[in-house]
Each structure stands twice: as C-alpha cells, then as structure tokens.
Specification:
The chain is α/β, with parallel strands linked by helices. It has 2 domains: 3-80, Ubiquitin-associated (UBA) domain (Helicase, Ruva Protein, domain 3); 102-306, Vaccinia Virus protein VP39 (Rossmann fold, 3-Layer(aba) Sandwich). Helix content is 40%, strand content 18%. It is built from 13 helices and 9 strands. The strands form 2 sheets. It has a 7-stranded mixed β-sheet with strand order 5-4-3-6-7-9-8, sandwiched between helices. The longest helix has 15 residues, at 65-79. The N and C termini lie far apart (76 Å).
C-alpha cells in the first residue's frame, strides 16, 4: 500500500495552515513524539517554505495538495524517530544556520558554552599576530565556523576522520562566509597535523564521550540515526580525552590552551587525565548554565617544563 498517497487522499483537498498544524501535532502525539507541537511547526514550515512566524500570521491560508503530501511525508519520517534536523537538513547554532545530515552529529545548544569560553580566552591572547585555532573532530564545523565568525582575524584549522563530515563542514563554512579562513584536513585526531609544523593558541574539541555500552540505551533519535563513530568514547568514555591529553601539547603555543567538552559527571576523570599527562597547568572544569560540568580547560606547561 502507498502510505503517502493514502495519507494525502484522506485529508481535505484545500486544508489551511491552522488545520494542517493541528493534524501534524495529532499525528506526532499518536506516534509518541514528546516535542510534537514544535516539531509539527518546524516540519510544516519546511513543507510550505515559510517561517514558523509566517504560519502563525497566515493561519487561515490554504496549502496546495503538493505541500500537503510533502508535510505528511515529513511527519511519517518523524514518527520513525528521524530527528527533525536530519529531515530539514538544518539546525541553528550560535544564531547561525548549519546544514546537517546523518554524516554528522546534530549541534547541541550545550556546545555554545564551549564557544563562549573560547572567546573569553581569546581576549587574553597576544594581539601582535593573528590568532590560530584548531578544532579537532570538527563534524559539521559548528565550532570552527562560529569561532571564525566571531574572531574576524583568526585562522582556523579543522580536522575530522570522516570525509563525509568534512564535506558538510566545508559547506557550512561557505554558507556562513568564513571558508577563506578555515582549513579543513582529513585525519584521525592529530594525524592530520605534522608535529611541530604549526603552533596553535587554542585547540578545541567536542570528542565522542558516550560510554560504548550506553549507546544502545539512548533515545532512538540518537542511537538509530546519529553517526556511531561520533558518539562512541570507548568502554569508559575516556578514549579521546586520553588521546587529546597525550598529544595536544605538541601543537600548542607557549601561552596556548586546550579546551574539551565533556559529558555529565565526567569532570573529575577528565581533570585527572590532563593532570596526569604532565604537560598542562591550571587544569579546570567549567559548568554550563544548568550547573553541569561542561568544559575542561588545560593550559600549556610543556614549554615551561622543557626550559628548566
């Protein structure tokens, strides 16, 4: 049976936006979607090429049969627990719009805290030369692009093991007007960088940190749809933090620092990893606005140690 055709034929021939929004909400509620109203609004806006605000203002406007069928197709994808961001291929982050596909993780608002702290640290960097930043495991490029947008003289290097992710990241750099200031390199973590070839004032990363046996327990939107390689942090979730702590110092300027996003209740473990590495000083954990441990910062001490 053609599910899409049946759904479209069962609906009024000229429904208005208000009625279609109600239909969307009811469909998603019946499908067990917790965020039914906002998801229905976003999907309807995508189906009719309008904003959510325009839908409210033009609630009585009719929609075409083609728009109706497109809306129902989007609703059925959401009922299958496909994330809205993958359906629309768009997600806002740092007041910018990014393209996202199943090649990359969906940007989370919590990561904006990483951007805020990075910008704060950038104010203390020497002003006599262009600032250099690296984003390790860039994914969709949200960190690299956001920093480049805010710091107009900075140069950014972004790496990822996934060539598919790098394609999306490059597109996002173009969409947001910073493609000329970001260099994208393919490689696993620091493999794309030549040791000692370049120094960075700040190295940032939002690495995979979900414990491997916990991935299956996550909501279907995550464990069915988001790239596992971007989620799996190893048995204890610490694999990538160990790698970052062991290698980042080689690429930091004398005044440089490394920042990583962390998962819930991981602060003590990640702090210990950086402290035990022996290359860093002033290792601290910063909370997000909900009070959860969110970002670990470690400043370069390796040059200081080697000069003694």
């Amino acid at each position: 049976m053609d599910m899409e055709g049946t759904l479209c034929n069962d609906l009024p021939s000229q429904p208005c936006l208000r009625n279609m929004l109600r239909h969307g909400i009811e469909t998603l509620v019946a499908g067990g979607i917790q965020s039914a109203r906002i998801d229905a609004e976003v999907l309807l806006a995508d189906a009719v090429a309008m904003t959510r605000e325009q839908i409210v203002v033009g609630a009585e406007l009719p929609i075409s049969s083609e728009q109706l069928c497109r809306f129902d197709t989007l609703l059925q994808r959401r009922v299958q627990r496909e994330p809205v961001a993958y359906i629309t291929e768009r997600q806002e982050f740092w007041s910018l719009e990014f393209r996202v596909t199943p090649e990359v993780l969906i940007p989370r608002p919590e990561t904006e805290r990483l951007i805020e702290i990075a910008l704060s640290l950038a104010k203390d960097l020497p002003a006599d030369k262009p600032q250099r930043f690296a984003d390790i495991g860039t994914g969709s490029g949200i960190i690299a692009v956001s920093l480049a947008r805010e710091l107009v003289t900075a140069r950014v290097l972004a790496t990822d093991i996934s060539t598919g992710a790098l394609t999306i990241a490059r597109e996002n750099a173009r969409l947001n007007g910073v493609a000329d200031r970001i260099t994208f390199l393919a490689g696993n973590m620091f493999a794309a960088l030549a040791t000692g070839a370049e120094e960075f004032d700040l190295i940032v990363s939002n690495p995979p940190y979900i414990r491997r046996d916990e991935i299956a327990t996550l909501e279907p939107e995550i464990n069915r749809w988001e790239p596992r390689r971007a989620l799996d942090g190893g048995a204890d979730g610490m694999d990538f933090y160990r790698c970052i702590a062991a290698q980042t110092w080689q690429f930091l300027s004398p005044h440089g620092a490394v920042m990583v996003e962390i998962g819930a209740a991981m602060g003590c473990q990640v702090l210990a990893i950086f402290n035990q590495a022996g290359f860093y000083r002033d290792v601290t954990v910063m909370p997000d606005y909900a009070g959860r441990e969110r970002v670990v910062i470690a400043r370069n001490a390796a040059r200081r140690l080697s000069s003694k």
